[in-house]
């Protein structure tokens, strides 16, 4: 048996192992032990062992969630040995991948095979199971979140049972487990739909806030993938329209791409955020400069090189999913709130869209969706800004991203999700003793 184990193993030693910290540094926990199973069978043995020891179990990916969804004082499962592509089925056009595989590794491997996911988020550091379990998404008029591209998954439940779930096999579990929050079991493999690799043309250009808001529905309807960033304390936005292209490929020049995506968007932005944290009154002036620094550009490349960007500046994030028809009103309220308050906001506000899907706890479940994400530089006091934003978003029926900062509880979420009770009933069936519980799940799902 090749499972790696670290830390004390007795039930009386809770919280005495090595500390774990998430990417943003706002969540820490101290599990009793960490394990790295190399197979679903080894994982099942670890789950049974944890149950005998009276310990809870959580699986952690790369720690890119801003909530404590992966925190535990029990057993922390690291999927470091559950990586790689199991198989590519070119007839069914699917790829089956181990749950701990980083999205970056998957995207590069698929591109080598002439294949691609249809849509993806804007970073690719997360593991495939971590990204899908929390509802990670990009932007799309017709193509939805990463989880919506799942065709089957392998799940180890609390009693150590290994099951395959798809639309044909255990369909009621499949409907929920694609975004399972780590509450239904541990995902060990995922089968995604793929398609032949294609080209996207990205058109990025600045636009005034009032124009983006006035033309939001049109911009969404006319583009396969539309998103924009608004820079608080200014009237400036940066828009991005991604659409399929017949080619030829015209990637960003190596030097030009490095200058804007690394030097400006990471290096200079890091320095600007550090200055703003030290001298908050300087933030509006910095925002005016930052919002004009990125020029219009157009380029054509394969999907992951267009959808994703490096994100090296660490931050905290809150994101709410709104009914798409509520987006422009909420954004106007958000802008008015910032302008009428003493808040100093150094990060742009990101706006994306998604079509309705059929996943029980997807933020886009059953409705056309617009996402509004707000960020603050790590170490900056965030309570006042995030509280004010959350008040606006919840007034419009917003659903918080499961992996990003929010204060909602099970009572609110049961109203926000028509299929909430369906999910919790399934949880009662698969994990009646709450092996996979932690404080976060108790808050958002109830006990």
Helix count from the secondary structure assignment: 14
Spans of at least 5 consecutive residues whose pLDDT stays below 50 are 7-14
Looking at the structure, what is the overall shape?
globular
Report the strand count: 21
Helix content: 25-40%
Strand order of the largest sheet: 17-14-16-15-19-20-18-21
Tell me the β content: 15-25%
Main beta sheet, described?
8 strands, antiparallel
Measured between the Cα atoms of the first and last residue, the distance is 34 Å
- Mean pLDDT over the residues: 93
Rg from alpha-carbon coordinates: 22 Å
What's this, in brief?
By secondary structure, the chain is α+β, with helices and mostly antiparallel strands. It has helices spanning 40-53, 103-112, 128-133, 171-177, 209-214, 216-222, 254-278, 283-293, 303-307, 327-339, 383-395, 410-416, 420-430, 439-445, and strands at residues 4-6, 20-21, 28-29, 33-36, 57-59, 75-77, 85-89, 94-98, 115-116, 150-156, 162-166, 186-193, 195-196, 199-208, 225-230, 236-245, 297-301, 315-323, 349-354, 369-377, 399-400. The chain is built from 14 helices and 21 strands.
What labels describe this entry?
alpha+beta; 32% helix; 447 residues; 8-stranded antiparallel sheet
Write up this protein:
α10 packs antiparallel against α11. The protein has helices at 40-53, 103-112, 128-133, 171-177, 209-214, 216-222, 254-278, 283-293, 303-307, 327-339, 383-395, 410-416, 420-430, 439-445, and strands spanning 4-6, 20-21, 28-29, 33-36, 57-59, 75-77, 85-89, 94-98, 115-116, 150-156, 162-166, 186-193, 195-196, 199-208, 225-230, 236-245, 297-301, 315-323, 349-354, 369-377, 399-400. β10 (150-156) and β11 (162-166) form a beta hairpin. It starts with a strand and ends with a helix. The relative contact order is 0.13. The radius of gyration is 22 Å and the shape is globular. The chain is α+β, with helices and mostly antiparallel strands. The strands form 5 sheets. The protein has an 8-stranded antiparallel beta sheet with strand order 17-14-16-15-19-20-18-21, sandwiched between helices. Strands 7-8-12-10-11 form a 5-stranded antiparallel beta sheet. Residues 7-14 have low confidence and may be disordered.
């Amino acid at each position: 048996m090749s499972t790696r184990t670290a830390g004390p193993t007795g039930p009386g030693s809770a919280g005495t192992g090595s500390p774990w910290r998430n990417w943003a540094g706002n969540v820490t926990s101290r599990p009793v032990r960490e394990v790295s199973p190399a197979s679903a069978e080894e994982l099942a043995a670890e789950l049974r062992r944890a149950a005998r020891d009276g310990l809870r179990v959580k699986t952690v990916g790369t720690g890119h969630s801003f909530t404590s969804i992966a925190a535990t004082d029990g057993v922390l499962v690291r999927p470091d040995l559950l990586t790689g592509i199991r198989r590519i089925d070119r007839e069914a056009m699917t790829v089956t991948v181990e749950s701990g595989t980083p999205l970056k590794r998957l995207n590069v491997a698929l591109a080598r095979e002439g294949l691609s996911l249809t849509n993806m988020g804007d970073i690719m550091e997360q593991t495939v199971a971590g990204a899908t379990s929390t509802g990670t998404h990009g932007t799309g008029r017709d193509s939805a979140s990463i989880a919506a591209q799942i065709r089957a998954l392998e799940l180890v439940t609390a009693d150590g049972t290994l099951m395959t779930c798809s639309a044909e096999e255990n369909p009621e579990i499949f409907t929920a487990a694609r975004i399972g929050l780590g509450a239904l079991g541990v995902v060990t493999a995922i089968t995604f739909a793929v398609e032949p690799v294609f080209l996207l043309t990205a058109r990025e250009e600045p636009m005034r806030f009032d124009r983006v808001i006035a033309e939001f529905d049109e911009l969404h309807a006319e583009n396969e993938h539309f998103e924009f960033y608004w820079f608080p304390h200014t009237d400036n936005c940066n828009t991005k329209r991604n659409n399929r292209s017949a080619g030829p490929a015209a990637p960003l020049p190596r030097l030009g791409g490095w200058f804007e995506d690394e030097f400006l968007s990471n290096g200079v932005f890091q320095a600007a955020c550090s200055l703003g944290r030290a001298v908050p009154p300087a933030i509006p002036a910095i925002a005016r400069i930052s919002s004009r620094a990125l020029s219009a550009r157009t380029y054509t490349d394969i999907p992951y090189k267009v959808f994703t960007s490096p994100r090296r500046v660490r931050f905290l994030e809150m994101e709410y999913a709104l009914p798409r028809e509520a987006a422009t009103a909420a954004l106007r309220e958000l802008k008015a709130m910032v302008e009428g308050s003493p808040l100093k906001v150094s990060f742009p506000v990101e706006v994306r869209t998604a079509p309705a899907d059929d996943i029980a706890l997807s933020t886009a479940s059953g409705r056309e969706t617009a996402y509004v994400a707000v960020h603050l530089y790590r170490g900056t006091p965030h309570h006042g800004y995030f509280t004010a934003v959350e008040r606006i978003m919840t007034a419009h029926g917003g659903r918080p991203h499961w992996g990003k900062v929010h204060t909602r509880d099970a009572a609110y979420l049961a109203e926000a999700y028509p299929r909430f009770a369906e999910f919790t009933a399934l949880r009662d069936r698969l994990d009646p003793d709450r092996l996979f519980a932690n404080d976060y799940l108790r808050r958002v799902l109830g006990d």
